[in-house]
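Quick illustration, no need to memorize.
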Amino acid sequence: MPRKRSEGAVTLSDVAQLAGVSLATASRAINGSKDRSVAEELATRVREAAQMLGYEPDANAQAMARGATQTIGVAVNDLTDPYFAAIAGGMTDACLDRGMFLTLASTGNQLDRLPEVVRSLDSLRVRAILLTGGRWRTSGIGDDLSEAIRRYISRGGRLVTVGVRLPGIDRVLIDNEGGSARLAQALWECGYRRPIVLTGPEMHSTATVRAQAFLARARELGCRIPPENQIVSDYTRAGGQEAMRLALESGLKGDIVVATNDVMALGAMRQARQAGVAVGTELGFAGFGDIAGLEDAVPTLTTVRVLKEEMGRQSVALAVTGPGDGTGEINLPTTVVLRDSTPRRTGRPA
């Protein structure tokens, strides 16, 4: 017997479950799609399931799915971080090329606000949402974010993650693991043996991946990195300054400071310089991301180059024309860039 809305809130997820298809497929079958169609057999199953449950499609959802709205929503962690600004610049260029608009929303580096940001963008009926940067690796926040995403997709929206994986979501990824491992190799070849690693927050997904990959390769090469040489801090310039202050006050022994992003490395360099450390010659520094301005730093900062603008452009393309069912994936390379902050250490093998 059909279950009407008066008997409970029937959602598109209910329809998808009854029809035995993904939420994205159910959305395309019910709401339509500007870019992709659904096989007739699947579409029939979805329509029959919707009729059995008494599901009624939402007009706004149909407009979103059919591309009637021309706005892309972007969630970023910190608009003041040049790394995210460059990604957003690539997104803006891609939207302009398509005659679309971009709406930016920031968590203010409070990643637990991400579900709220997704819900806010959903309320604006944006055509797609792009989630940039890392996530907290905690189940509670993850459940809240998953529910916000599920509701948005059920309304006909498209979603792409940039730089991180989420189950069932199309994504644009960079080679964080490979870049970090290659950085460890390059620094070893320059003669560095005692890294102090500024890991970022322990529960930050991107920071954790980069730190773990660097530490693993450095240890394989022969570096001895005691636990005290791994410093947890905020993923910001201020976090890098505070981590460097703690390292200096604790008298940690090291020949290079490696941060999991560039702004942390710049903050650490500033703190070291203020403490009278000869940055570059006495203590090396390296970051990750290759944000704008590193060639103007004194000394210029060694880092891992990320194709940030390309990440932005590809994420828009994937949101507009990708499969939308979690199978869409674009991988971009990373490259180590050695600069003056990591001069070769004399008396050590190349």
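Confidence is low (pLDDT under 50) at residues 1-7.
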